[in-house]
Amino acid sequence: MSAIVAVKNLSKTYKSGFNALSDVNLDIERGEILALLGPNGAGKTTLISIICGIVNKTGGTITVDGHDNVSDFRAARSLIGLVPQELHLSIFETVWDTVSFSRSLYGRAANPAHIEKLLRLLSLWEKKNSKIMTLSGGMKRRVLIAKALAHEPRILFLDEPTAGVDVELRKEMWNVVRDLRDGGVTVILTTHYIEEAEEMADRVGVINKGRIILVEDKKTLMRKLGRKRLILQLARPLPVIPPSLDGFKLELGTDGTSLSYTFDTHDSRDDVPRLLAALAAAKVDFTDLHTEQSSLEDIFMGLLST
Amino acid sequence: MNWRAVWAIFSYEMKRFFRTLGQSLFSPVISTVLYFVVFGAAIGSRIQEIEGVSYGAFIVPGLIILSLLTQSISNASFGIYFPRFSGTIYEFLAAPVSAAEMIFGFVGAAAAKSILIGLIILATSALFVPLSIAHPFWMIGFMVLTAVTFSLFGFMIGLWADGFEKLQIIPLLVITPLTFLGGSFYSINVLPPVWQTVSLFNPVVYLVSGFRWSFNEVADVSVMVSLGMTLFFLVTCMAIVAWMFRTGYRLKN
User: I want to staple A256 with a disulfide (CB 3.0 to 4.6 A). Which of A102, A171, A237, B213 is the partner?
Assistant: First the structure.
C-alpha cells in the first residue's frame, strides 16, 4: 500500500509559545482505518487541523495523494472530509441545505441522489427538512458526518467522532465508518476511547506531548506489547507468598485467596509450567485458574507511562 | 476559480438577508422617513436652497451613503464574524476555497444587500422630494464602489472582532461621526475655512461629494478626486484583507 497522506517533520508552536507538535512523521496508508490515540492536549486535533488546512504549521511538509497541502491546497483539500470534534453547525439551516452547501463549497455540482444516499445511510432522511436547532446531539454529529462526506472525499478525518454519543449510536457510527472503508475511503479517527480504536482500527498511532510515540498494526501491537495475566484461586488463603516463589513476581490478592502472575506473551513459553511446578513444590494448592489478555488500553497506559 | 463555492457563500448570505427581510428592509426605510421628517420637513423648511437644490433633495445622497456605509459594514462584519463565533468557519478553511473566493462570496453578498437597501432608500426618498439623477451610471458606480469598499472594511472588522460588542465599536465610534461630519446633511463649503480643511481628511466627504454630484452636479470636491479617493480606499481595504488572509489573522492559529 502507498501512503495517501504523508506527514514529514511537522512541527507546530502556537503564538503563546506552546509547542503542540514536534517533528511528527506519519504515513497514512491508502484505504486503512488509522486510530490516533492520545490523552487530552497530546496534539491529535492540532495534527489533523494542520493536515486539513485549519491551522498553520510552523515547519515540515504534508502531502495528500502527492499534493502539497499548502501550495496545491485545492487538489489536497478536495480529497479530504473533516468531522470536527465540536458540533459546529449553522443552527438555522435545514439538514438538506447544510449538507448541500458543504458539497458546493468543494466545487462539486449538485447531486441530490448522493445527498439522499448519505442522509439515508446516516438515518437522517426523515429529518432532511428539519432545522439543525431541533436535532438531538447525536443527530447533529451525524449531520457533521454527512457534511464531511457530501463532496465524496477519499480521506475522512473524524476528530473524536463518538465523544458524548450513546453506545447504540456509537456502534451505528462504527458500522458507517467500516462501510466507508470498504468503499475505499481512508479513515483517520482521533479518540481517547481505547475501545473505539480496538474495535475499528487497522493501525494505531499513539501521540503524546506532541510526539508520535509509535504507529503500529493493531494486531501486531497487541501481540508485541500485549501482556497476559494468570490468576489462580487458592484452596487456602496464604498470609505471604512463599520465598521459593520470589522469582516469579507474583501478586497476592488482598484477602490472600488469589495469586496473579503477569507475563509478556512474547517471552519464553515455559514460564507458566515452571510456575505451576513451583507452586506444587511449595504445596500451594489452587481450585481454579484463568488468564486475561491485556487490552489496548493497558498497552496505551503502559506506553504513556514510559 | 471555485465559482460554485463563491456562489454557495453568496447565496447562503443572501438567504440570511431574506430570512430576516422585515428587519432588513423596514429598519432603514423607517430611519430614512425619520430623517426626512426631522431634516427635511422640520428643519429643511427653514433652510434655503443649497446651490439651487432644495434641502430635502440635497440630503438624499448623504442619507443613501449613510445607509450604504452602515449596512455594508454591519452585513460584512456579521457575515464573517458569525461563522468565527459559531465555529462553522472550519468548513470554509478546510474547503478548497481561496481567500479571494471567500471575499467574493462574503463581501459580494454584503455589498449586494447594502446596494439593495440603498436603492430602496432612493425609492422611499422619491416619495418625499422631487428627485433627479443627472448621471445615473456614475451614481450606480459610486454606489457599487462605496458598498464594496465598506463591505471590505466591515469584513476586516468581522475578522478583527473577538466579541459582539467589538463589531459595534468602529461603526458607532468612527463611521457614524465621520458620516455626519462628512457633508451628508450639509455642504462643507458652509464651514469655516479651518474646518473645511479638516473635513478634507474625512474620507466620507469624497464619497458623499462624488455621489451627490451624480445626482445634481453639486460637489464639494472634484468628481475625479472623489473617484480617485474612493478607488484608493477600495485598494487599501483589499490589501489589508488580503494580508489578513495570507497570514491567517484571527482565522488560523
Answer: A237
Domain match, A89 and A234 both? no
Q: Which residues of A touch B252 (CB under 8 A)?
A: 54-56
3-state SS of A14-72? CCCCCEEEEEEEEEEECCCEEEEECCCCCCHHHHHHHHHCCCCCCEEEEEECCEECCCC
Residue at which a domain ends, from A175, A192, A223: A223
Question: Which grid cell sits at A95?
Answer: 439538514
Same domain assignment for residues A72 and A112: yes
How confident is the model over B5-17, as pLDDT tens digits? 999 999 998 988 8
Q: For residue A290, what is the domain's CATH number?
A: 3.30.70.980
Tens digit of pLDDT for each residue in B67-82? 899 889 989 999 999 9
Enumerate residues 188 to 207 of chain A having a beta carbon within 8 A of any beta carbon in chain B.
none
Residues A195 and A230 placed together within one structural domain of the fold: no
Whether residue A115 sits in one domain with residue A27? yes
- Residue A154, chain B, CB below 8 Å: the answer is no
Query: Cβ B96–A75 below 8 Å, yes or no?
Result: yes
B252 touches chain A (CB under 8 A): yes
User: Mean per-residue pLDDT for B140-166?
Assistant: 92
Contact yes or no for A15 and B253 at CB 8 A: yes
Interval B182-210: pLDDT, tens: 888 888 888 888 888 888 888 889 988 89
Give yes or no for a contact between A300 and A194, defined as CB atoms under 8 angstroms apart.
yes
Is the CB of A95 inside 8 Å of chain B's CB atoms? Answer: no
pTM score over 0.95 = no
Q: Nearest-CA residue of chain B relative to A97?
A: B12
Q: Which residue of B has its CA nearest to A20?
A: B253
Same domain flag for A9 and A96 = yes
Tell whether A89 lies on the interface with B, counting CB pairs under 8 A: yes
Domain residue ranges of chain B, discontinuous segments joined by +: 3-247
CA atoms within 13 Å, Cβ hemisphere of A219: 1
